[in-house]
Design brief:
- This protein is an alpha+beta fold.
- It folds into three domains: about 100 residues, no CATH class; about 160 residues, Beta-Lactamase (2-Layer Sandwich); about 170 residues, Orthogonal Bundle (Hypothetical protein af1432), CATH 1.10.3210.
- It has 19 helices and ten strands.
- The protein has a six-stranded antiparallel sheet with strand order 7-6-5-10-9-8, with helices on both faces. The chain has a four-stranded antiparallel sheet with strand order 2-1-4-3.
- The protein is elongated, with a radius of gyration of 37 Å.
- Bound molecules: fe (ii) ion.
- Fe (ii) ion binds next to loops.
Length: about 475
Amino acid sequence: MKEGVQMPEIIDLLDKSRIKELLRQFSDAFGTSVILLDKNEDLLFTFPENMHHTDLMKEPVYLRDSIVGYVGIPKADNPPRSSLCFIGRNMTEIIGMGFEVDSLSGEVAKNYEELSLLRSLSTRLGAALNVDKICNELADEVMNFCPSKNVSILLRSDMLADTLSTSYIVGSKNLVPESRKTMLFTKVALGAYSSSASMMSLSTDRGLLKHAFDKKEPLTVCDVSADERFEGFTYPVSRLLIVPLIVEDSFIGAIVATDKLDGEEFFSTEIKLLFSIASYCAISIKKALLYDGIRSLLFSTAEAFSLTIEAKDVYTYGHSKRVSDIAAEIFKELGLPPEIINWIRLAALLHDIGKIGTPENILNKKGRLDIHEMDMVKQHPLSGAKMIEQIPMLRDLSQWILHHHERYDGSGYPSRLSGDSIPMPSRVIAIADVFDALTSDRSYRKAYTKGEALKIMRESLGKELDPVLFGYFEKIVSLLP
Ligand SMILES: [Fe+2]
């Protein structure tokens, strides 16, 4: 219940029949009529009902130190003053308790609403480590909770750039130009002006954003035309709410909502709830950004490794990267989610990493390898798998690498697995591996054309290669250079 509450509202809150019953009990206990007045001394209730009174002894009734009304007893009843004091005190206590209960109920309801929103968000986000997903879910939730003409999620520009997010991870924040830290770019925009809003960038070193970030709290403006701090918006705005996304005392972005569809202003309860959601999501966004940075670092390192190994042989330079790109396209064609595609991309990038232990003279030998040399080359899937197994985050990939030279008919190595018992990613890598090998120059032959390579591969279906997965490869082969 709001402050400045009046007695009639208190009576509604406590229930009229209970107030009347209370007056009856006072009346019975002290053998006198009892009257309840509001703070202007206008009559509210009497007991007995409809009694006439003229001259009253009155005692104030308080709520949080303010007089909200009076209890009175007719002087004609000749009551002791102590009776009236007792009634006044009791009425004050009862009203105070009712008010506190109501406030607590309101608080519980608000907390419940806040928890429900957070629960809904956490269910939808799960353990999401994808910045796009988190921002989309956040924008959706804000739009559902507070339908507005536009809801945007903006993030700091230095956090959106891959290379810079990597420098953020390794703690070289100072390398990021200050100007990049003060620009926010729209990551997601929903609503009537989404296309215009999605192109918008705002500076945090001036205007309303500066104010919100300096204060580290939400900011609402009822009429932006009357606020000289308003600037930079590319679409019509009248009412505005900015909720900063803050993690560990530093901002990473903001939620911006404009003009509620019901025409009302943004209420303090809504702002408080959105601030709670923003705090929750800011942590998730930061975690996702860190994860993106680590992943980016991992991919760059893996690529650098594969290129280092391939640098020994001019004919295979870039092979792993091309195999990785082809395998990723096949996985996309299979309809697998981006997270899984990233793993296959990485596994394909590292599939020949075991060759780091293969002597250079064998790798570069012109002409046929003898049995001993061939045995050494055949060690590379096992060596690679053992290396990758040492990295807990990549342990699952080691099996894919281990089996990339198995053949569909069971005549491959190292385990002579066949058909579906070969991990599916290994069968995909095998297809990409063979295609790239056939379409690349070798010391002993020129590269086959795409058509010639496909013809050769088709002849090996069911023997070396998985015929079903090859069907998916054929669908994407036209995309390849
Ligand atoms: Fe290999």
